[in-house]
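Consider the tokenized backbone below.
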């Protein structure tokens, strides 16, 4: 039995250690979550965009995580829980109602079964003044577009919804004033465009008459990402009889957002308003943040599918639970971080002209904790493999010592027989002098011991080499 164990044990120990080190002890993808949003102090909703991430060697991939639970507390008071899954794109929208309003500190916890993926305090943003503007493309406001203006008449050009998306129609408003600031009622406006066409007028110049307030409205359909607009206004009634008519010109570029997903304003009418999203380019989904003066109130991931018009469209119905002022605008993006160039804030209510939409921000990152958990798991498995190696080496050395002791006793017995002592079989060998017999026994005892020590050292070195290689993982 010791002889068999001497040969089997090293292979078994190294095999078990290799299974532990190369199996559970090998690096695996760390799975964690990130939390995005724009929570505002006093808001009655905590709308969070949850992102599942898998990371290996610094490279991140989306992680579809089933059945996570999101819980939070506001000023120590628990909010309602949210349970759901992250889709194959690794994103999900969690909505936790806060009837008493969000107050510092707000702590969120995301769990997958008994494992806590993230537990962190979330920062609250202060409410923005209604008059504060934003640099987010498409945020509706009454700011006039920059352009080159000349002449006695002053022209101000604004886009009704703040931005244009090709090739979808949008309204453009023109205000015409005389030099004294009075409206140029009934002024005639000649319109020409490059890169767009005038709905109901085509691509050529069009003549439009301003109303009694000196305002004119035209509908443009951009056909390119760069659209130039040229306006020439004349107003005979603003000059004395017999003199030439007052005139003014305006030339500028319109804010066409390349790659923007268009929000069809027709879907907002009716008893059940809905967001109808249309993308000119193939996209699997659109990411929407709905909010108002009190911040982000709701998030949605809208699947897009090919329609009969050659576009990709999808829709989402606005819930009845949204209070007035909570759904003034919708930030529509093609990426979950709302950082792409095609991100647009479309107004969905009349109050949106004074709202200040914000893009979602990274509130908490659970990936460092996920990587720490993965390192601890792999380290525990590697320690178990190294323990198996160490135990195998100790047992192997003991078995070698046992075999050496048994072999030495057998050799001593044979030497005793050869030196004239009575052996185990009752025979006697040729007599030797005591001096020769002592030298022979000393040689017999020394050589096996040296061999055993050398073999034990070689075995220990082999196990140590395997253990050293394991530390390079």
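A designed sequence for it:
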């Amino acid at each position: 039995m010791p002889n068999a164990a001497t040969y089997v044990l090293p292979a078994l120990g190294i095999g078990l250690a290799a299974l532990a080190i190369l199996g559970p002890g090998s690096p695996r993808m760390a799975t964690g979550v990130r939390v995005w949003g724009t929570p505002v102090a006093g808001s009655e909703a905590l709308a969070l965009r949850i992102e599942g991430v898998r990371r290996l060697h610094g490279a991140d991939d989306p992680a579809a995580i089933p059945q996570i639970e999101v819980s939070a507390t506001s000023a120590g008071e628990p909010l309602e829980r949210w349970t759901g899954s992250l889709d194959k794109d690794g994103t999900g929208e969690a909505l936790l109602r806060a009837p008493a309003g969000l107050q510092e500190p707000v702590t969120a916890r995301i769990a997958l079964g008994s494992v806590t993926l993230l537990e962190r305090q979330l920062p609250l943003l202060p409410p923005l003044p209604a008059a504060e503007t934003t640099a987010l493309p498409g945020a509706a406001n009454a700011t006039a577009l920059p352009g080159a203006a000349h002449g006695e008449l002053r022209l101000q050009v604004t886009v009704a919804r703040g931005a244009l998306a090709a090739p979808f129609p949008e309204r453009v408003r023109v205000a015409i004033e005389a030099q004294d600031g009075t409206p140029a009622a009934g002024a005639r406006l000649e319109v020409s465009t490059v890169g767009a066409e005038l709905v109901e007028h085509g691509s050529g110049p069009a003549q439009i008459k301003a109303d009694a307030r000196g305002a004119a409205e035209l509908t443009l359909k951009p056909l390119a990402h760069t659209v130039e607009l040229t306006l020439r206004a004349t107003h005979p009634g603003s000059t004395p009889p017999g003199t030439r008519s007052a005139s003014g010109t305006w030339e500028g570029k319109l804010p066409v957002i390349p790659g923007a997903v268009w929000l069809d304003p027709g879907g907002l009418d009716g008893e059940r308003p809905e967001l109808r999203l249309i993308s000119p380019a193939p996209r699997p989904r659109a990411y929407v943040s709905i909010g108002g003066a009190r911040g982000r109130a709701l998030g949605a991931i809208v699947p897009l599918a090919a329609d009969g018009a050659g576009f990709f469209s999808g829709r989402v119905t606005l819930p009845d639970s949204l209070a007035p002022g909570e759904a003034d605008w919708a930030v529509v993006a093609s990426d979950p971080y709302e950082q792409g160039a095609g991100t647009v804030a479309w107004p969905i209510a009349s109050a949106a002209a004074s709202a200040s939409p914000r893009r979602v921000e990274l509130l908490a990152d659970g990936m460092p904790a996920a990587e720490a958990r993965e390192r601890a798991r792999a380290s525990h498995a590697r320690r178990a493999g190294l323990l198996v190696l160490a135990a195998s080496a100790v047992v192997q050395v003991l078995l070698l010592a046992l075999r050496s002791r048994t072999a030495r006793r057998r050799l001593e017995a044979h030497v005793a027989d050869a030196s004239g002592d009575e052996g185990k079989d009752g025979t006697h060998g040729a007599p030797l002098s005591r001096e020769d017999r002592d030298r022979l026994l000393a040689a017999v005892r020394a050589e096996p011991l040296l061999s055993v020590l050398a073999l034990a050292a070689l075995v220990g070195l082999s196990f140590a080499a395997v253990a050293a290689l394991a530390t390079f993982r």
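The radius of gyration is 41 Å.
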